[in-house]
Design a protein that fits this description.
It contains three helices and three strands, in the order βββααα. The protein is α+β, with helices and mostly antiparallel strands and 115 residues long.
């Protein structure tokens, strides 16, 4: 839930008051138009291990994934990598979950936010 005076960005992490936000520097020829796309987070189940995450597609290339403790502990790929000595915060992604999210976007279960 967004507190009064706070802006919800659809991303995980702390929400900043409007005065605390800064716009990114733009390169030559890039539009200064603000990107106000919003996307709903949807549950996506991994077709390999059954872990469930919340995912949103802001474009074909931009995907936001929220893992909770249950999904991390159920993820087969994370389990194998932890057994090999890696720490879960340092694991960038699970390829099986990525494929499941891509499949959900292709078949319409995970909508891509319009530009």
């Amino acid at each position: 839930m967004t507190e009064p005076g706070m802006v919800h960005t659809g991303m995980t992490g702390p929400q900043l008051p409007p005065e605390g936000q800064r716009s990114a520097q733009r390169g030559p020829g890039e539009s200064s138009r603000r990107d106000d796309r919003r996307s709903d987070y949807r549950s996506v189940r991994c077709s390999d291990c059954g872990a469930v995450v919340l995912a949103a597609k802001f474009s074909i290339q931009h995907t936001s994934v929220q893992w909770d403790a249950a999904a991390v502990s159920r993820c087969a790929e994370f389990g194998q990598r932890v057994a090999a000595g890696q720490q879960t915060p340092l694991i960038e992604r699970c390829e099986a979950m990525r494929a499941s999210i891509d499949a959900a976007a292709v078949d319409g279960r995970l909508p891509v936010a319009p530009p």
